Amino acid sequence: MSASGRPTIKTVAARAGVGRTTVSRVLNGSPLVSDAARAAVEEAISELNYVPNSVARSLVTRRADSIALVIPESESRLGSEPYFSAVIRGVSTALAGTQLQLLLVLVRDQRELDQFTRFLAARRVDGVLLVSVHRDDPLPGVLEELGLPTVLAGRRTADETLAHAHSDNLGGAVQAVRHLLERGRTTIATITGPLDMDVGHSRLRGWRDALRQGGLEPDETLAEPGDFTEEGGRSAIRALLDRHPALDAVFAASDVMAAGALAELRRRGRRVPEDVAVVGFDDSIIARHTDPPLTTVRQPVEELGCSITELLLREMAGPGSAPRQVVLPTSLVVREST
C-alpha cells in the first residue's frame, strides 16, 4: 500500500504472485504476458480496486476531446426501454455545438468495470456521464478516485456527493397517486422500481406520502418490487392480485412495467379503467400506444440528457463551477387508463 492507503503496482504484484513488470505489461495491454499471469493480475486489480496513477496523471494533463456515456445495464434493457434512447438524444443535442466525441459504454459486471478502467488509461476521456445508478455500483467510486469530471443521471442516495440531475420522482409519484384518489380509488397498489436505486425509493415514498395525505395508511402488502421491465410488471401485478383481488388501482413506477400490468390485467379479465385504473411514469412513446392509452407522469428525459451534459461541460471547463444538483419538474398526463 502507498502512504495514502491506496494499492500500488507492488501491492497488485504481490497479490497476483507476479513481478511488477508483468503488472505494468497487463496495464499497458502488452501481448508479452501469459493468459494465466494476465488473469491473476486482473483478479488482483479487481480485488484491490486498483487504479493506476498513470490514469489520474493522464486525465489531468491531456485532453482526449471525448466523453463517455456509461450505462450499467444489459443490451436488452438498452434496446427495449425508451428512457435510454431519450437520454442519448438529449446528450447528443447538448454536444452538437462542440468538438467532443461521444462514446457509449456498457458496464455490466466486474470484468467490464476492470476493462473500462483500463480503457480510461489506454484511450482517455475528458469526462463521464453515468446513467441508471444503483446504490452499490462501484463505478462512481472509481471515477471519484480518478478525479475525473463526472455527472450522474439520477443519484445513489439523497446524500449524493457527485454532481447529478434527476426528475422530481417524489413529486411525480405524489401527483399520480393523488389523481387515483381523486378518481375515487381506495385500494391503490404500486409496482416499484428497483429498490437499490434512489428512483425506486423516491417513487415508492411518493406513493406512501400521497396515501397519507389522502387519509389512508399505506398497506405495504400493496407494494410489489419491479425491475423496470415489461415482464417485471406482469409478475408484480400477478403477485398483487393474488394478495389483493379487490385492488382497484395501480401506480407503476415506469410505463414499461405499466404496459406489462395492463396485459396481465386483460388476461385476468379485469377491465381498465372500469375495474382497475392504471398510472405509469415517464410518458414514453409506449404510454400512447397501450390499450387503453396510459395515464402517466411525464418526466423530461431528453432534457435530463441535455442537463447532465451541460453540467459536465461546465465542470470540464472549470472544476467546481457547475451546480451539484439539478431537479427537473414532472407533470401528470391523463389518458384513458384512469
UniProtKB/TrEMBL annotation:
Residues 7-61 form the HTH lacI-type domain. Keywords: DNA-binding, Transcription, Transcription regulation. InterPro entries: HTH_LacI, LacI/GalR-like_sensor, Lambda_DNA-bd_dom_sf, Peripla_BP_I. Coiled coil: none annotated. SUPFAM superfamilies: lambda repressor-like DNA-binding domains, Periplasmic binding protein-like I. It holds the Pfam family Peripla_BP_3. This is LacI family transcriptional regulator. It comes from Streptomyces zingiberis. The lineage of its organism: Bacteria, Bacillati, Actinomycetota, Actinomycetes, Kitasatosporales.
